[in-house]
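Reopening this ticket.

The earlier resolution said the output was attached, but the attachment link was broken on my side. Pasting everything inline this time so it's all in one place.
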Amino acid sequence: MSDLAQRIADLADRLAAEFNAVRDEASLAALTQAAMMDLALDGELTPGKVYVLTDEDRVVVAFTSTSYADMPIGPVAYGGPPAQIVAGGAFNDASGWTVSGAGASITGGQLVFGAGGGLKRAYWVAGETLVQDQAYAYSFDIVSRTSGLCLLSIGADGISAGTSTANFSAPGNYSGVIELAGLIGQDILIFASSGAVLTVDNVSVTRALNSLVLSEGSISENSPAGTVVGAFSRTFEGSVLSLSDDAGGLFEVVGHELRVAGGLNFETASSHEITVVETRPGVANSPRSTDLTVTVTNALDGTLGPELNPDPEFNNPGLWTCSNEGGNPVPEITGGKAIFTVGGSIEIPTTDTLGPGIYRVTWTIDDIVGECEVCLGYGTLPSTIAQSVAATYAEDVDCTETGTPPGADVIRIATSGAGFSAQIDNISVKLVTFP
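Inline output:
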């Protein structure tokens, strides 16, 4: 008998004994649901399927996403969707939330981080015991944003962010999976940077079942064959990955990586659906399939002009003006990097006038906590881009809407205040000419 079959047999024996003692189908269903959910979270069972083990002496055991009231067998455990850990995520009732910070409130069915300095927080005590190394699925909306960024942390203590945190800085719906790498407390914490003005709604956090996760879900068009899209995680040791749907030969799996196999064209299709199959020899729920969407990004076109940053590699500290407020440490240009320890800003005059037009900004963030922004022609109405994740970016900034960029002809890099830091490796700014 396989290990899984033995575990289910043992479970059936135990549940049958308990059922014979109490003759309570509701209690049996609850016990079975909890036990089978643990098997599912271990990757041994697949949600949405019914598993039955029965003979003359044993009770039927099943795990399904269909209500047991509609099933012709019983007693049956109703698995259903994972329970919500944040019951008050719609913000219809403020009683379960602890909110602090200037301008922070629950108003009109939304979490509002209004104007005011200092960090703003809202936390909810988790509806179940959080477990380190467990994966948790989240979803929430940033309804509106004027400034700053919002962070979601799982396993916090209502004050500290812990280590399982995701940063977001633009309106939209965000969802994903966070591995609970650090466990400080049992709270779900939402907090915003100093001076942030934004609104949050529809927060959902549940335990995540073991589906495959792709580290990067987008790839630039025209990427050559063999380019790595991303690496798969939450795979099992010794498993083999393949594609049952490769989007018409556009993608392939090599080891545990997804790679480009055919020509990608943003103008033809901006996304593709693929199905990844994980096979584990001798395992009951093998193979398992995961449907994923790969986004194709539009490659930046146009002809680039001369470099406008006289020090794109941060080799000449004397060319930069570094400043900060509130007595916080001033950013440094050292070791070929711009280092921000507690907020602040740096700026450098451009080698030519920043007139109206489109400018290609290419920059690399090596490390960041919070948000970092780049302003061209910094003044009362700067043309700005902002990022909150360490990566290399190539972005076009439109300085045409204001006629000419207001303020001085400078490139300015700035981060938020206390608690936020960044290391910038390089930054290039060039005028783009389109055909």
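Reporter confirms the inline version is readable. The longest strand covers residues 135-147. The radius of gyration is 26 Å.
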